[in-house]
Design goal:
191 residues, 3 helices, single chain, Rieske Iron-sulfur Protein, 4-stranded antiparallel beta sheet, alpha+beta
Length: 191
């Protein structure tokens, strides 16, 4: 009889400790910094190989391409000003793009901890201006892999997850999921 009560007491202590540990992990879940933005994003483009700025940014570390949508066209631009305009067809209109202010797409100049060069896609809007004043300010890219806002003068590091490295308090760049299939020649950005 004493064995059963000691066993029950030990089991009770074990279960209670497990519950407390699980609750302590769950209670901190609100403090998690999300890797990807909560804003809606979608862009599908199936002509990567015939779009030199985009192709260069997706295949070369340290290169970044902006994607904007002026007057209904898709404009792809590298840092050096090399650009390419694509006029969407009627078929393209079935997969309408969604973003705040365009995209910044490319590959960081340094590999991650596993030695891979992962592709990155960010929104082209300054998150500080957007969150504070709902202003959709374009970011300007620099040769060092930085994105600079001309309004609030915040500087973001494209090679380091879009972190804010200069300027006032603010968020990192809005990052989206990106998939590039070279064989199918298709790029998809989404969230």
């Amino acid at each position: 009889m004493k064995f059963i009560s000691k066993f029950s007491k030990g089991l009770f202590t074990f279960i209670t400790s497990g519950i407390i540990m699980i609750l302590s992990l769950v209670s901190c879940s609100g403090d998690i910094d999300h890797e990807f933005a909560q804003h809606r994003a979608f862009f599908r483009y199936q002509y990567v190989a015939t779009t030199p700025p985009l192709y260069a940014a997706l295949n070369n570390p340290g290169m970044w391409c902006t994607i904007s949508f002026p007057n209904g066209i898709y404009r792809f631009t590298l840092l050096d000003g090399t650009g390419f305009d694509y006029r969407p067809t009627a078929l393209d209109s079935y997969t309408r793009h969604e973003c705040i202010n365009g995209f910044i797409v490319g590959m960081p100049s340094l590999p991650d901890f596993s030695g891979r060069f992962d592709l990155r896609a960010y929104d082209r809007v300054c998150p500080t201006c957007y969150e504070e004043a709902a202003i959709q300010r374009d970011l300007t890219l620099t040769a060092e892999g930085k994105a600079v806002c001309g309004r609030c003068h915040c500087v973001y590091d494209l090679n380091n997850g879009g972190l804010l490295i200069e300027g006032g308090p603010g968020e990192k760049l809005f990052r989206y999921r990106i998939n590039y299939a070279p064989v199918q020649n298709i790029l998809i950005i989404q969230n």
